[in-house]
């Protein structure tokens, strides 16, 4: 490479100086102005062209410097000059130089102020909050998550949430105001990458009560989450106080690696199995989605874990009737073991904590006043009917499909069948039906929004219909629109045949649920909302994650909606203590009921009443259901 010329060197140094920012640019303009004034003042002094002062003596060098500065600042000053024409033209040149310099200065200042305002708009100052919740990332789930966090923190003065995302701050602030309205919870937004240490330092992780890592859309979502967890773990080490971390994970392979990064105490939520379990369970029990939404939402009744020393020595069965406003569902033993539920004759020991469904933490109190139960209002015990093979129609090509079929296979009787319809021609390879024990799977390629395809499926001949959200290569709105079109066709087909088949569909945006209500589908699983509800619950109480995992697992006790006639006589005037007694005789826990007459009434939670006051009188009709925690 040839040796750089003097001009190249000067240009290189000039470029470097300009790149240093506004301060360097202003300094350079000041130097140019000073050089201009010094050169002209020296020239005037050496040539004797400087004007004479009031005493007849030539103006001093210092005075010439001052005159030059005034001409540079105010070009109008040249009009009051006196002296030779040469002097006047020299000062005019100084004025022109001043015009150039100060015009450039105005441009630099304008650009500098613009940069300052842009930095302020992006929010680059360090957050001075304590005991706040940090959300890393911005996805479609953020609206439901913020709503739930606002509800959870409604009774906490000064509660705050800090969001760090690669998203425009002004846009985030506008959306937050739209979602939360007048909520008392303060939301602070910062633009930045959770993967960058300097950006992560803005949110003050050392003082945070919990950190929520949102999973972005796209095939590399888990990679981003894992890198974010590594950054959070390192930031926690620097702060000397690792925060409580909650993160969405989409692949089981990533889960074990993430656990190594953040430890066993972190709340890592594997979202695809969560959605598929609720979808399958709800498809088999209409109304179950409403029960889960009520349990997971802070606006309704949710799980609380509290010490109840007054129960020491009492059996778990006696504890069921010790609460008027809460429903006992399990025990955390003094040794840290979780029992949901324990044996009914197990006695509470000192240090045990109850797991209860209640309106708030201050309503978990021993205020039960059970009344004697008249035997004639209770239904006789019947043995469980043997399950029969079922036919299930699954519409939509989705990444959840293998999980949905696996979950379905865990519940159905041997000899059951499932017909899967989707557009992808590699559906059979994706399903992996050979791993299923009770279900044989058939595959048909077709567009589930095409009426001709649906007419050829014998829709009325199925026991259940599941409609999955087809997210691959589609926006959220497009996905939900396709789901609604499919539901409209299904409802019309069933109406024409005079048949009724339970339909459960997955949607992404909760705002589309009201629009989708015209399809008369039995249940909707709003997957984004469901994940947001679970994340918010676990962020507020990390032990809730294990409780929810127990409820959603095919093993052990789960939530069922069973016919009310199996518990009390239809139409009998009873209180809920009687329903709890009837369920206890079956080894089950009654936690609510669903009225069939309000199954499509959104204003009354689609007929679901969870954790009712046990002393209130109710009449359950033959078509009503009791919400129980049972093994089958």
What does this structure look like?
- The chain is α/β, with parallel strands linked by helices.
- It is 40% helix and 17% strand.
- The protein contains 20 helices and 22 strands.
- α2 crosses α3 (61-73), α5 (142-152) runs parallel beside α18 (527-540) and α8 packs parallel to α9.
- It is elongated and about 125 Å long.
- The chain starts with 5 loop residues before the first helix and ends with a strand.
- The model has no long low-confidence stretch (mean pLDDT 81).
Tell me the number of helical segments per DSSP (H or I, 4 or more residues long): 20
**Uncertain residue ranges:** none
- Overall pLDDT, averaged? 81
Which structural class should the secondary elements be placed in? Answer: alpha/beta
What is the rounded Rg? 36 Å
**First-last Cα distance:** 81 Å
Largest sheet: 6 strands, parallel
List the helices and strands and how they pair.
Blueprint: H1 6-19, H2 22-47, H3 61-73, H4 85-122, E1 133-136, H5 142-152, E2 160-165, H6 169-180, E3 186-191, H7 197-200, E4 210-213, H8 221-239, E5 245-249, H9 252-262, E6 267-270, H10 271-284, H11 288-296, E7 302-307, H12 316-320, E8 326-332, E9 338-339, E10 353-358, E11 391-395, H13 401-411, E12 416-422, H14 427-431, E13 439-445, H15 451-455, E14 464-467, H16 476-497, E15 503-507, H17 513-516, E16 523-526, H18 527-540, H19 544-552, E17 558-563, E18 573-575, H20 576-584, E19 589-594, E20 608-610, E21 617-619, E22 625-630
Parallel strand pairs: 1-2, 1-4, 2-3, 4-5, 5-6, 11-12, 11-14, 12-13, 14-15, 15-16
Antiparallel strand pairs: 7-10, 8-9, 8-10, 17-22, 18-21, 19-20, 19-22
């Amino acid at each position: 490479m040839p040796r750089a010329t003097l001009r190249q060197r000067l240009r290189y140094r000039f470029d470097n100086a300009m790149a240093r920012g506004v301060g360097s640019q202003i300094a350079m303009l000041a130097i140019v102005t000073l050089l201009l004034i010094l050169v002209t003042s020296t020239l005037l002094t050496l040539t004797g062209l400087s004007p004479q002062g009031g005493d007849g003596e030539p103006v001093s060098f210092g005075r010439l410097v001052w005159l030059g500065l005034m001409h540079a600042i105010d070009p109008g000053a040249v009009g009051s000059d006196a002296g030779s024409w040469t002097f006047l033209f020299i000062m005019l040149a100084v004025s022109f130089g001043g015009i150039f310099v100060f015009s450039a200065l105005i441009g630099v200042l304008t650009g500098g102020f613009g940069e300052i305002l842009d930095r302020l708009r992006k929010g680059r100052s360090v957050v001075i909050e304590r005991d706040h919740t940090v959300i890393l990332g911005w996805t479609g789930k953020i609206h439901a998550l913020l709503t739930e966090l606002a509800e959870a923190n409604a009774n906490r003065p000064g509660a705050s949430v800090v969001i760090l995302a690669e998203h425009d701050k002004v846009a985030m602030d506008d959306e937050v105001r739209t979602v939360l309205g007048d909520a008392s919870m303060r939301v602070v937004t910062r633009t930045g990458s959770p993967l960058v240490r300097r950006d992560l330092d803005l949110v003050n992780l050392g003082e945070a009560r919990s950190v929520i890592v949102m999973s972005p859309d796209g095939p590399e979502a888990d990679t981003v989450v894992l890198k974010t967890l590594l950054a959070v773990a390192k930031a926690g080490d620097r702060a000397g106080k690792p925060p409580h971390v909650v993160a969405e994970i989409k692949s089981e392979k990533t889960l074990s690696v993430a656990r190594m990064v953040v430890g066993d105490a972190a709340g890592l939520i594997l979202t695809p199995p969560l959605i598929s379990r609720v979808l399958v369970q709800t498809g088999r029990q209409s109304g179950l989605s409403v029960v889960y939404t009520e349990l997971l939402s802070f606006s309704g009744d949710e799980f609380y874990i509290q010490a109840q020393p007054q129960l020491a020595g009492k059996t778990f069965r006696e504890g069921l009737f010790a609460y008027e406003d809460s429903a006992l569902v399990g025990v955390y033993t003094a040794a840290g073991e979780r029992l949901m539920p324990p044996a009914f004759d197990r006695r509470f020991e000192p240090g045990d904590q109850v797991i209860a469904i209640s309106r708030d933490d201050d309503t978990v109190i021993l205020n039960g006043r059970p009344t004697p139960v008249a035997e004639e209002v209770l239904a006789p015990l019947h043995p469980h009917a043997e399950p029969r093979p079922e036919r299930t129609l699954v519409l939509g090509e989705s990444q959840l499909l293998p999980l949905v079929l696996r979950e379905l296979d865990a519940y159905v009787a041997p000899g059951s069948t499932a017909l899967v319809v989707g557009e992808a021609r590699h559906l059979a390879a994706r399903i992996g039906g050979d791993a299923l024990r009770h279900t044989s799977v058939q595959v048909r390629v077709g567009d589930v929004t095409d009426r001709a395809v649906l007419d050829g499926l014998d829709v009325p001949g199925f026991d259940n219909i599941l409609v999955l959200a087809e997210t691959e290569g589609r926006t959220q709105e497009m996905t939900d629109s396709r789901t609604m079109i499919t539901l409209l066709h299904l409802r019309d087909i069933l109406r024409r045949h005079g048949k009724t088949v339970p339909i459960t569909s997955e949607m992404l945006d909760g705002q589309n649920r009201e629009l989708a209500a015209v399809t008369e589908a039995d249940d909707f699983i709003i997957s984004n909302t469901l994940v947001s509800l679970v994340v918010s619950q676990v962020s507020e109480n990390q032990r809730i994650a294990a409780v929810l995992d127990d409820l959603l697992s095919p093993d052990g006790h789960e939530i069922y909606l069973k016919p009310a006639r199996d518990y009390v006589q239809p139409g009998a005037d009873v209180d809920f203590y009687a329903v709890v007694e009837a369920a206890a005789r079956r080894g089950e826990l009654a936690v609510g009921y669903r009225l069939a007459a309000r199954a499509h009434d959104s204003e009354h939670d689609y007929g679901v009443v969870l954790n009712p006051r046990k002393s209130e009188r109710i009449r359950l009709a033959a078509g009503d259901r009791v919400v129980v925690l049972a093994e089958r």
